[in-house]
């Protein structure tokens, strides 16, 4: 009773700092609802700005409005309004029921915290200015009055505390020894300690209630700001800028070993230790897939937490937003995460290094970047890759080796500490514990299992594990049911710590309990480390950029800094320009090229299947009618079936050759690094290209008409046909003589003067050739066939001459070339005479049978001309445009494949530009982030 009677005015000042906000909320509840209407009232009618009136009622009105406004920063200004005279009377009854304990001041705000409150109040005033709630003059008056009230409260507290300090310490001590007190006193002390714990938990509950109210206020404020932001350029939040910066660094150096030393929170723990649940409690949404006893996290998941009016999630490479307040979309999000994890794992492996990036926004979320890693396993089970355990350890070590990474070490509190794998791994990386935070999960299960309270306390004060850490926290992240909502888990967590026997005796560790305190501590540590490291990284990338620019100037001084995509677009433009220039090729060049390719393609068929068979028939029948009959039949059949398709193929070949020739001519003025890409695109486009089917039927009609007309109307056409006939005969004669020379060997002249010799087979063939030439000299009009008697005679003559028998096959092979040469010589002499007989041909129609060979080649000449003209028109009018479109399609297809670009555009010049561009981009993002960070600071 003596202890309870020791109530001094000091408690009034101390406990006001924590309790006053509770009653103040009751009076400001109605003003809370009408918060949004304040922004629409006229400034001169707002009671808040009439604070110059010294009357007590007006002061009381100011306090009520202030309590509503300050809920936005309730954690910082809860002790600043305790000195209000009118409000203090309403809490006198509460003060009378509380014990007079000086040591409770340890859990209440100190001078440093009051300084933070003042800074936070200034931030609130800035927010009020930004949303145009009040004017600058009115805010200055209000700030002056508020600072005066704070100073007055501090002076009263110091004066009262100094007077009663000695008496309070003597009468109440938190460290009363068991030997110095009686049993009644001990019970009183235990009862007081229990009341204090309950008071702390009630205070925690009130803070959480205010937190929920604060979320609604923040949401309203953010929505109001968003309405204004939509009218101007949208600015990214600080955490979003930082997250994009980390993504760029990950693309630049995915190993995390050289450049990427910026902070992030690495969530690491043993499998099924609850690390994913901790991350979900911080994000306030069940966003990850779960499996009973199965490894679900198979790839790193980077989660960027930021504040926003709506609770939504979005992947980095997707525009869809998942509403986290709807269970159906939460299920879709978890399914999408699971699918992405499975797709990231290559065949034969169980885990992947590919990062899945996700952003989660919502009211009241702490701004930070967390990376959830696969859980540490002790052994590999069936179905896993043999190296899974080692891969997970290497991945975890790689992420933790970042000297600025915050390690959130998750330890299962329901199992023996000696079974932990993760603590040894973390202690090896961060031996001094300068960036490690230990989180003890599943403490509710530990209590059910009758865990030792001393061991739990040792974990939270850092004396049980060999590892060191910045802080130690205990959380409850689930009730054992996967379908439980975050709100129900938070309520369960609050209830557990309020009634827990494990933590009842642990006075002063309330700040180490609950995921809310954990997230606040992690966020503070995260941003502190960000500010310390980001400028250092900016300097590092500045030096890297200078080195790369120097290398470019020394190695490629005359080239533009074009990356792979820009070079790709340059090649596209050059090739498409070349296609357009095809339409500028002259008609003469097109038709000369087409006529030459057409004759080269059909000459063999004309001589071997039309002219020679018809000519041989004339020698056998001595009738020119048989020649024309055979020629007409063969040409018509050929023109209807084979010639149009062959002509189209020739036209396509000419178009391709002409295009490639133009590219080669312009190659000297082009960039050599583009040659491989250009040729690949051209080959692909030409392979895809097919001639218009409509041209086939038109071309067939043109060719049939040209081949049916054998009438030569003028001297020019006659000379042209005769010259074409003579040149064709000369070409075939030369080709035949070359084949015959190869068969019979060198001549006597070559043997004597060039020291050449003949083989035995060539000597035998040469003897056969001599016998056959003698036969043709004796009968120049001999047919193309040898009679049986002639074969026997030649064989006997050779046997008498050489003493060796001769095979009939050898005679026939040699006869083919000898007679062919004889026929071409005879036809060439005849063609030379016919070339001069146009007027005889024109005057006497009865003698036209003698000119059948000239007529044949006139028909061929006209057919080639008409076909070349038709193909040229088809190319210039349609095929060039179609080729242009097909090349564009090939470029579009290649543009979608980064692998194809990397394959076709290679070399140090390309990679150097890409590295330089990446470094420039990262440096710019770093500088922008530093500017935004300095503005916020």
TrEMBL record:
Subcellular location per the Swiss-Prot or TrEMBL entry: Mitochondrion inner membrane; Mitochondrion intermembrane space
Superkingdom, taxonomy of origin: Eukaryota
A single BP term in Gene Ontology: mitochondrial fusion
EC category: hydrolase
Keyword terms, alphabetized: Apoptosis, Coiled coil, Disulfide bond, GTP-binding, Hydrolase, Lipid-binding, Membrane, Mitochondrion, Mitochondrion inner membrane, Nucleotide-binding, Transit peptide, Transmembrane, Transmembrane helix
GO-annotated cellular components: microtubule; mitochondrial inner membrane; mitochondrial intermembrane space
Residue stretches making up the Dynamin-type G domain: 259-535
Catalytic activity: GTP + H2O = GDP + phosphate + H(+)
Gene Ontology MF terms in the entry: GTP binding; GTPase activity; lipid binding; microtubule binding
Keyword hit for Metal-binding: no
Gene3D superfamilies referenced in this protein's UniProt entry, alphabetically: P-loop containing nucleotide triphosphate hydrolases (3.40.50.300)
Keyword GTP-binding included in the entry's annotation: yes
Subcellular location, principal: mitochondrion
InterPro entries named among the record's database cross-references: Dynamin, Dynamin_GTPase, Dynamin_N, G_DYNAMIN_dom, OPA1_C, P-loop_NTPase
Membrane topology classification: Single-pass membrane protein
EC number, as in UniProt: 3.6.5.5
Coiled coil: 175-227
Protein name per its UniProtKB record: Dynamin-like GTPase OPA1, mitochondrial
Species name: Sipha flava
């Amino acid at each position: 009773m003596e202890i309870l009677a020791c109530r001094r005015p000091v408690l009034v000042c101390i406990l006001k700092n924590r309790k006053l906000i509770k009653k103040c909320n009751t009076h400001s509840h109605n003003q809370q609802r009408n918060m949004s209407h304040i922004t629409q009232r006229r400034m001169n009618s707002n009671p808040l700005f009439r604070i110059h009136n010294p009357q007590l009622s007006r002061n009381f009105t100011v306090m009520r409005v202030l309590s509503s406004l300050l809920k936005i920063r309730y954690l910082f200004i809860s002790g600043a309004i305790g000195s209000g005279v009118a409000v203090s009377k309403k809490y006198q009854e509460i003060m009378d029921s509380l014990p007079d304990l000086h040591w409770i001041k340890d859990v209440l705000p100190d001078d440093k915290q009051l300084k933070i409150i003042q800074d936070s109040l200034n931030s609130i005033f800035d927010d009020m200015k930004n949303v145009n709630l009040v004017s600058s003059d009115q805010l200055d008056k209000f700030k002056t009055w508020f600072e005066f009230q704070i100073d007055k409260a501090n002076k009263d507290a110091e004066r009262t505390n100094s007077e009663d300090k000695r008496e309070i310490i003597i009468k109440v001590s938190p460290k009363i020894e068991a030997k110095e007190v009686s049993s009644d006193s001990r019970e009183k002390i235990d009862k007081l300690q229990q009341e204090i714990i309950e008071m702390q938990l009630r205070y925690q509950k009130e803070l959480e209630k205010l937190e929920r109210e604060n979320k609604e206020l923040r949401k309203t404020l953010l929505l109001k700001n968003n309405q204004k932001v939509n009218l101007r350029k949208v600015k990214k939040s600080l955490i979003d800028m930082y997250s994009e910066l980390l993504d760029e660094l990950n693309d630049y150096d995915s190993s995390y070993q050289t450049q990427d030393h910026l902070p992030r929170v690495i969530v690491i723990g043993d499998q099924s230790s609850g690390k994913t649940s901790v991350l979900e409690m911080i994000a306030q949404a069940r966003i990850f897939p779960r499996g009973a006893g199965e490894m679900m996290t198979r790839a790193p998941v980077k989660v960027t937490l930021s504040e926003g009016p709506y609770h939504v999630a979005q992947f980095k490479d997707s525009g869809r937003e998942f509403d986290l307040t709807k269970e159906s979309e939460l299920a879709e999000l978890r399914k999408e995460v699971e699918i992405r994890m499975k797709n990231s794992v290559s065949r034969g492996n169980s885990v992947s290094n590919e990062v899945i990036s996700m952003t989660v926004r919502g009211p009241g979320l702490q701004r930070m970047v967390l990376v959830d890693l696969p859980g540490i396993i002790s052994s590999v089970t069936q179905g896993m890759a043999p190296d899974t355990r080692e891969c997970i350890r290497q991945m975890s070590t790689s992420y933790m080796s970042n000297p600025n990474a915050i390690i959130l070490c998750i330890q299962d509190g329901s199992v023996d500490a000696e079974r932990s794998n993760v603590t040894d791994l973390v202690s090896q990386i961060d031996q001094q514990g300068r960036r490690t935070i230990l989180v003890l999960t599943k403490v509710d299960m530990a209590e059910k299992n009758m865990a030792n309270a001393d061991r739990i306390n040792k974990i939270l004060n850092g004396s049980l594990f060999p590892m060191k850490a910045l802080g130690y926290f205990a959380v409850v992240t689930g009730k054992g049911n996967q379908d439980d909502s975050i709100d129900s888990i938070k309520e369960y967590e609050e209830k557990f710590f309020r009634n827990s026997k494990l933590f009842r005796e642990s006075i002063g560790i309330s700040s180490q309990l609950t995921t809310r305190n954990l997230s606040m501590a992690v966020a503070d540590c995260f941003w502190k480390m960000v500010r310390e490291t980001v400028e250092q990284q900016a300097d590092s990338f500045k030096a890297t950029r200078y080195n790369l620019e120097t290398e470019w100037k020394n190695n490629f001084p005359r080239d533009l800094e074009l990356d792979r995509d820009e070079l790709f677009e340059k090649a596209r433009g050059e090739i498409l320009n070349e296609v357009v220039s095809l339409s500028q090729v002259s008609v003469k060049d097109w038709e000369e090229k087409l006529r030459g390719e057409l004759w080269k393609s059909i000459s063999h068929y004309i001589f071997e299947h039309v002219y020679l068979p018809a000519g041989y028939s004339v020698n056998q029948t001595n009738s020119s009618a048989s020649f024309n009959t055979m020629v007409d039949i063969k040409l018509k059949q050929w023109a209807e079936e084979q010639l149009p398709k062959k002509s189209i193929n020739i036209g396509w070949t000419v178009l391709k050759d002409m295009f490639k020739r133009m590219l080669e001519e312009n190659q000297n003025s082009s960039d050599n690094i583009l040659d491989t890409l250009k040729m690949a695109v051209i080959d692909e486009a030409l392979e895809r290209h097919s001639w218009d089917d409509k041209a086939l039927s038109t071309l067939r009609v043109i060719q049939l008409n040209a081949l049916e007309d054998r009438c030569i109307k003028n001297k020019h056409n006659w000379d042209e046909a005769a010259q074409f006939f003579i040149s064709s005969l000369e070409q075939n004669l030369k080709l035949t003589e070359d084949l015959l020379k190869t068969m019979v060997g060198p001549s006597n002249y070559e043997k004597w003067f060039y020291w050449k010799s003949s083989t035995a087979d060539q000597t035998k063939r040469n003897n056969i050739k001599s016998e056959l030439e003698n036969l043709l000299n004796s009968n120049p009009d001999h047919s193309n066939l040898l009679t049986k008697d002639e074969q026997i005679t030649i064989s006997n003559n050779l046997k008498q001459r050489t003493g060796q028998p001769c095979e009939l096959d050898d005679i026939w092979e040699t006869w083919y070339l000898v007679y062919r040469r004889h026929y071409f010589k005879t036809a060439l002499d005849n063609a030379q005479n016919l070339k001069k007989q146009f007027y005889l041909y024109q005057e006497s129609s009865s003698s036209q049978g003698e000119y059948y060979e000239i007529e044949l080649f006139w028909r061929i000449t006209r057919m080639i001309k008409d076909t070349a003209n038709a193909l040229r028109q088809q190319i210039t009018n349609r095929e060039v445009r179609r080729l242009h479109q097909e090349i564009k399609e090939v470029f579009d297809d290649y543009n979608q494949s980064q692998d194809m670009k990397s394959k076709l555009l290679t070399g140090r010049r390309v990679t150097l530009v890409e590295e330089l561009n990446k470094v420039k981009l990262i440096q710019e993002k770093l500088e922008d982030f530093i500017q935004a960070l300095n503005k916020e600071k």
